[in-house]
Each structure stands twice: as C-alpha cells, then as structure tokens.
C-alpha cells in the first residue's frame, strides 16, 4: 500500500514539472540567478532586474503558451548568418508585452543568465521554464544558442550552452544552433 502511495506521489510531482525532475542543483552553492531577480511580464517575456534586459522566455521557433506557462512548438536551429537575417526580417520589430527592438544577445548578456548551482538546464527555471522541456532537448543543437560576439582570435562566434552554462566558439557557417532574443527596451 505504501509503495502505491509513494508511486502515485512521485508521478504527480514529476508530471507537475517534468523539467525540474532532471535539473540538478547543488544545495551548498549559492544561486547566481534566483527567482527574485526576474519579473514575469505577462505573455512571454521576463525582465532581468539585475541587468534591466527583457528576455523572451522561448527560443525562436517556439511561442509562449499562457495557459500551460511554457513554450509550445519546436525550436528552430539556424546558422549564425541565417539567425541574424531572421531576427532582422521578422523579430526586431515584433511587439511582445509592449517590448520591441529584439536582437541577438552578446555573450556577456547570455552568460549573465547562468545559474551556477544548476545543470540541465543551467538557467532559472521559473524565468525560463520552456527553453528545455524534455531530457532529449537538453542535448539538441538548439540547447546551445548563438551570441552576437565573435571570438577575438578566430573567425568563430561565441555560443552559450543552456544545459551546462558553457561558453564555446563555433564556426558561423559550420553549425546550426538555437536563438534566444533580448531587448534593451525594458518598461
């Protein structure tokens, strides 16, 4: 009987937030991106109160679902140049939560999102609950996102790993990764 109760409780907890089930956090390391640092703006954005930047909560190719409070759809993977073109053509002027001026973040802005106490993903789940929704997505190419920052000594671009918080550089034509957008137009 006890096994059935414990099993039912575990199923309920896992289905309530499957993402939290595989995010691993160290309790003895102070968090670098606590919940109080982010203000939810309504329909798909959060404001980082530390940097005053507004972030989209979903990767390009997905959209925020207000009812489920997560991202719906399949994230798109882009080469760096195609991502810049897509942003300029379709995203820069889009208005979400009264915010426009969307752009690709630089590597310092992306790295500021890193939650040093957690992995898989290494970002705040309350602010970004839908960036990685399944265990398979944490290893997808879209779990790495492009920055606008070129590497100083090569013709590569710095990227940010949402799953592990790593910063790595890749050839701008050789790989296709995800895109997370930011705006300086905080309300």
From TrEMBL:
Residues 44-182 form the Lcl C-terminal domain. Keywords: Signal. InterPro entries: Lcl_C. Coiled coil: none annotated. The keyword Zinc does not apply. Residues 1-20 form the signal peptide. Pfam families: Lcl_C. PANTHER family: LIPOPROTEIN (PTHR35812). This is DUF1566 domain-containing protein. It comes from Photobacterium arenosum. The lineage of its organism: Bacteria, Pseudomonadati, Pseudomonadota, Gammaproteobacteria, Vibrionales.
